[in-house]
Specification:
Helix content: 40-55%
Structural class: alpha/beta
Number of strands: 13
Largest sheet: 7 strands, parallel
Strand order of the largest sheet: 3-2-1-4-5-6-7
Radius of gyration: 21 Å
Number of helices: 17
Strand content: 15-25%
Length: about 400
């Protein structure tokens, strides 16, 4: 049995955002049975630090700084006819590192994390290829196109079409194509015609996200509503903006002292300006997101556009907090009624108001959510199917 090459569009450490969380736990799972070589991009100066946690589970790692601007990536895409998602991650240093590793090491499997990295697969790969698309990004860009106008609408529609064509071609070259939820897997199977498509869901570290563990407390006066996430990510920005404009005023008419905390790194200017609204706090990056989740009277995920499984929802459930989510944010999660789901501003506002009105019922709901997460979403259980894809079992598991 040979080694594994893990290609990542971002260093999967520290596990402090959705893609890094999944990437880190997949990397750990792979490293439990085989030597893993990591080649990934860095887009944060801290990615270039000597992380012992990564060194302990990899046989080698090559991290390349990604400095290409969005404007340059867009220009290259228009000239070449490629998706911007690919040109943004096209890099000679990464290509050279892949070629060198494949020439020097006995690589049995190439694990490609996100379709942007599939451009580094050899044309006639003799290795097993596992393609972890995570989400169906083409569908995300189709949604962006519907919500855009003018040249941006054309650009998003172009990206969606080219990315679907690219991903379909890659799927035909891969032994297994993975998505984070059955809904995403089914959609891709229908749109691409690929047969070897499977769902490998995200898990949650319930030992870390545990309300009984010690962590620094955060004092939030009055009823507190908390949103967590990477705050330069468009769906998150749109979600908190909608919440502040359309939902929070309804809640504050009933609970005048209610406060909304937007917790997450890399806040855009649009997000920072939301702090000018009554009752809104924008924290920026925090040392420990668990403290803010634990302090919340209710955690919200009012995303209008969401693909796959939302880690922010699983984390809040694991922390035994009541959660109110949009239908899109809840879609990929088997919550068994332990979170409240709504579609409109009125529905979400009513659900949040009901939770704030009855703390005892809210506490019961939160405990039920934690129980569901512990039963359904441990990382060990969620990633067990990878052993079959790696050839450690008699046959590949097939998921609906």
């Amino acid at each position: 049995m040979g080694d594994i090459l893990f290609l990542g569009h971002r260093l999967p450490y520290p596990p402090n955002r959705g893609d890094k969380i999944r990437g880190y736990h997949v990397l750990r799972h792979l490293a439990a049975t085989q030597r893993v070589h990591l080649i990934a991009f860095a887009d944060d100066p801290r990615d270039l630090e000597p992380w012992d946690a990564i060194d302990q589970i990899t046989a080698s790692r090559t991290i390349v700084w990604r400095s290409k601007s969005r404007l340059r990536a867009a220009a290259e895409a228009i000239v070449s006819g490629a998706p911007i998602s690919l040109t943004a991650f096209a890099d000679r240093a990464v290509r050279s590192a892949v070629e060198t590793l494949l020439a020097e090491q006995a690589i049995d499997t190439i694990y490609v994390f996100s379709s942007q990295m599939a451009q580094y697969l050899p044309l006639n790969a003799g290795q097993r290829v596992i393609m972890d698309f995570v989400d169906m990004d083409a569908a995300k860009f189709e949604a962006y196109a519907r919500d855009s106008r003018g040249p941006m609408r054309w650009l998003m529609a172009r990206e969606a079409a080219l990315l679907l064509r690219h991903d379909t071609a890659i799927a035909r070259r891969s032994q297994a194509n993975l998505f984070v939820s059955a809904a995403e897997a089914t959609l891709f199977r229908e749109r691409s015609g690929a047969a070897n498509v499977h769902a490998v869901e995200n898990g949650i570290d319930t030992a870390f996200f545990n309300p009984e563990r010690p962590y620094a407390a955060v004092d939030l006066p009055g009823p507190s509503i908390v949103f967590t996430g990477q705050m330069d990510y468009r769906p998150n920005v749109e979600a908190v903006t909608w919440f502040v404009d359309a939902i929070l005023p309804k809640i504050r008419r009933i609970h005048p002292d209610a406060r909304f905390a937007i917790v997450g790194r890399a806040s855009t200017e649009a997000v920072r300006k939301l702090a000018l609204h009554p009752g809104v706090t924008v924290t920026g990056e925090v040392a420990d997101v668990r403290a803010w989740i634990a302090a919340a009277s209710v955690v919200v995920a009012p995303l209008k556009l969401a693909r796959g499984v939302q880690n922010k929802v699983l984390e809040a459930m694991a922390m035994a907090r009541p959660v109110v989510a949009s239908r899109a944010a809840a879609e990929g999660i088997d919550h068994r009624g332990t979170i409240r789901v709504g579609e409109t501003a009125d529905a979400l506002g009513d659900a949040i108001t009901a939770i704030l009105r009855d703390p005892a019922a809210a506490a019961h709901l939160g405990q039920a959510a934690r129980t569901q997460v512990m039963t359904r979403y441990s990382w060990a259980a969620r990633l067990a199917p990878l052993d079959g894809f790696l050839g450690h079992a008699a046959a590949y598991p097939v998921t609906p």
